[in-house]
Fold this protein.
Amino acid sequence: MNGACGGEPVIVRTRIPVWVLEQARRLGSTETDLLRLYPRLKAEDLASAWAYVRAHQDEIDQQIRDNESV
């Protein structure tokens, strides 16, 4: 995890926001699904994303809510 895109935390080497991955996981996507969908991701990237989500749950929840209304 490193960097931000539009103020949202993103995965290093990508512009994939952490909230996008967390929302996909909540909707039933597996890590295998995510790695297939985003070929630039590595398993370590997902582990970092899940750690970030655990440490910043309120922030991620808010980003998901904000983007659901778009």
